[in-house]
Write a structure and sequence with these properties.
Blueprint lengths: L3 E7 L2 H16 L3 E8 L11 H6 L6 E3 L8 H22 L3 E5 L3 H12 L4 E4 L10 H11 L2 E4 L2 H9 L7 E3 L6 H5 L5 H8 L6 E6 L11 H11 L6 E6 L7 H14 L4 E4 L3 H11 L2 E4 L3 H4 L7 E5 L12 E4 L3 H13 L14 H11 L3 H5 L12
Parallel strand pairs: 1-2, 1-4, 2-3, 4-5, 5-6, 6-7, 8-9, 8-11, 9-10, 11-12, 12-13
Length: 389
Amino acid sequence: MDRRRICVVTGSRAEYGLLFWLLRDLQADPVFDLQLVVTGMHLAPEFGNTVQEIEKDGFGISRRVEMLQPGGTPAAIAKSVGLGVIGMSDALVQLKPDVVVLLGDRFEIFAAAQAAMIHNIPIAHIAGGDTSEGATDEAMRHAITKMAHLHFATNGQSADRIRQLGENPARVFDVGSPGLDHLRRRPLLDRAALEQALGEQLGARNLLVTFHPVTLHEDSGMAELDELLAALEPLDPSIRLWFTSPNADAGGRAMASKLLAWVAAHKDRARAYASLGPLRYLSLMANVDAVVGNSSSGLYEAPSFGIATVDVGDRQLGRLGAASVLHCAAERGAIRQTIDRAMMLDCKGTVSPYGDGRATDRIIEILRSMPDRAELLRKSFHMTGSDRG
């Protein structure tokens, strides 16, 4: 039997971290021929040139698709999507995959989905059905669901939403979040090794802070970032602040500049990194007192570490969260109060709603037994019971 050509696309550091064990197992499995396409933030120096981390992890890169346009404006993002469709089309012509695996909802992945759909290549989509009502990612995620043919949901609620969108229930699978596979399969750095890897010592108390653009806001969430920084300003100096840079969404570059200026003015207690990579990021998460900001990692991974999350604003509005996730308005007083509460919260008994750390095993098994291309491409709209009347 011919090996199945599985093309996986990654465009950001966060998404690569979630895909790591799936990539590793696809690469090791004789049933599959892994084709890895790298695009977006991975190829940009200002975002850490993280393609180098992928290569250091031992993955061969089948194609690099340059698409990210300078400026960080909506126009630049729209042009990036257009270039992404063109570049992905060229890559698909050359690679001829049997299926394209996409994770999430970012504009790089939206571009890849459009190209695969036009080329009549089946799409396996991970993390569809989630909601994040404060970002344009919400619309792109559901659009990718309608273009996809296999659906790997991270939780039962999301699987229900995918079915509600008319997708074939037999093609919808609640596998959990593949990001949690790190907890079961990857030994994290202890405190001493982490400090060596960071080049800095942890404080007596620590916060991990990540704040991304809020793309549905006219100012891309810049005012919310100002409120967050104002809330962090009066914290006890013994609390060390560890920042990871915003992503490449509209407004991300302006946010990064403001953040770096703030960190430079508070270098006695704050550090910023363009990219930490999965190992350093998760090891740091395991050692902090709370995660602060509006990143999905505060909802996906932090609860499994028994770490509280301060989820600021509405970027993640509607996304399923554990009891350890504390939502607050993007207002300095509310943020400060919620940080104080988070740092005292006992989260040891937290149960993650995103699975048991075996998502990759389930995805691999489904990819092994998936129908052939012609059958996968046949789709019809499946009405839910409440819609039939």
